[in-house]
Amino acid sequence: MNALRFCASHGGVCTDSKWKPLLHQQEKSSSKPSCCHVHLLSLSCTCLHSVLHERTYDAKHADGKTNKCQHSALVMMRMMSKQHWILRTWLFLYLLVQKVYCFLPAPQNVTVISFNLEHKLTWRLGPGSPPFVHFRVQVYRNKRKLWVPVSNCSDLQMGEPCDLTTSFKNVYGYHLAQVQSFTTDHESNWTSSKFFHPLLETTVGPPVVSLTGCGNCLLLQLSPPTSRGLHHGLVEYFFREYTVNVSRTRDKAQFTIRASSGETLINYLETGAQYCITALPLPNINMKALPSGPHCAFTSQESVGTEQLPPPKNVTLKSYNMGLVLEWDPPQNSTGRNFKYSAEYKGWSNFEAECNGTSSLSCDFTNSITSFGTYTFRVRTELEERSSVWVMTEEVALDKITAIGPPYVRLLSRKGEIEVDITDPVLRKSDLSNIYSKVSYVIHYWIEGKLKKEELRGEQRKVMLQNLTPKVCYCVQVQILLDDNKTSWPSNVTCEINTNSDEIKPWLIAVVLVVSSIVTMVSAILIFLVVMCVYKVIRYLHPQPTLPEDFKQYFSEMPQSSIFLAMQNSHQPEELYYEVSIVADQEVPTSQLDLQDTECLKLNT
């Protein structure tokens, strides 16, 4: 279709004057023609196809061994006038002898050009490429081991480079890209670039320069250029220092100094003279760097009848709870003069105004800066059209210099313990947990009126103080501990009377158990002793009858008498016995006693 459009752009007719010069070009070319390079074949085939479609020629009637381009040539020769029969014959013979096939030349000189880490891929057309050719670009992904197309470089026109800044994000590795030319019907081979290392092959600079006079000095301000490929870390890497060449215009006297990003004061210069400077970045590695163009300025002329404004005095930064205020004192001997002041700040690039023409002796920068940025501040005196030199502060980080206020502490006593409830101070920007990675609390508590203090550390904002004496007043003070041993202001001393505990102490339970055991043992011993005493008293009062020892011995011995054995084996004989009565001893008359004795003798006999 592109060939047809090219043919149509030439009138849609294959006239002798349009393609005859191309014939001579083809005769001088190599034996391997290109349908894009050899315009004769491209134009003739395209024009013949155009005529063929116009005359509704049916290609089915053509000989199968004859290619389409030859069919078109035959049809065109039939339709041409007889006056061109010599040229028709030559074209026919040429197409028969020359085997025609089309190929598209590949791009050449594929190169990555990098400036301040903004990368662009450029190339040149292959010889013989048609003007309507387009291009596509791919980059190699080493991790995935494949070529990936670049979305914004899939259909580029002639002379249009490919932006690879986002594709080559890794500035510490090597990268590779390739280009292919294509038309609607054809594609060329891929052409690769050389390996490209962004950090080593990029060109940095020139820096942004601002130069103003200040009496017998020059105030030089250097800042890195703006680029999509430069982020904060790389800016510090490439544009940390500069070599500054200072030249006096009058006699070309010059000298060289080292300067860093930001403002540099060049002192001891001639008053009223013009000086020009050029600044060259000094990157940390060996790479190409472009110097700035010459920037010229006059030092301030010596004023006649006018005096230079004095700068502010005692310029200080005050930061509390992530707020930042620049304060200063008026210049000396400024009584009765209505001075105005302007204050500015600088982050990564240039100074930006915060307070312009203010009569106040302070400027609040809290809403203009971030919590983690590094900033430089400056202020100067102004009166009508005149101004003093800038008074600058050192570069500071807000989260490092700010003072964190005291936390709020609330105490609550219950069941013999005191609960400490800590509330972080309210910051003007964000909160403590988002700014500092480590936030812990140091709790000091003591009995009111005593010097001995106990310390408790933790990360919880609610802490229970245990093992406290009931009905005793305890005082608490809390301080916040942040990163790098940074601490907050201590809280106010807060006191609370501890209540009684409803729980029984473990030691009290142990004491009760021990005392109970001792009482139980003593009671058991006493009861045993009382029982023994009672038993002995009873036995003493009511003794048990006992046999004499002789009887015990006699009964314990086994009888050996035959008579005893016979008595044991025989029936027990009937015994005779008489009743004996024992009466109390009474005095009896002698006559009765004699009578009784006489009777007893008679009985015995």
Characteristics:
alpha+beta; Immunoglobulin-like; single chain; six-stranded antiparallel beta sheet; four-stranded antiparallel beta sheet; disordered N terminus; 605 residues
Overview of this protein structure:
There is one protein chain. The protein is of the alpha+beta class and 605 residues long. Among the domains are: 96 residues, no CATH class; 94 residues, Immunoglobulin-like, CATH 2.60.40; 96 residues, Sandwich (Immunoglobulin-like), CATH 2.60.40; 89 residues, Immunoglobulins (Immunoglobulin-like, Sandwich), CATH 2.60.40.10. It is 24% helix and 29% strand. The chain contains 13 helices and 32 strands. Strands 19, 20, 22, 23, 24 and 25 form a six-stranded antiparallel β-sheet that branches. The protein has a four-stranded antiparallel β-sheet with strand order 4-3-6-7, with no helix packed on it. A hairpin with a 2-residue loop joins strand 17 and strand 18. The longest helix is centred in the C-terminal third of the chain and has 36 residues. The N terminus is likely disordered.
Structure described in brief:
With about 600 residues, the chain is an alpha+beta fold. Among the domains are: about 1-95, no CATH class; about 110-200, Immunoglobulins (Immunoglobulin-like, Sandwich); about 205-300, Sandwich (Immunoglobulin-like), CATH 2.60.40; about 315-400, Immunoglobulin-like (Sandwich), CATH 2.60.40. Helix content is about 25%, strand content about 30%.
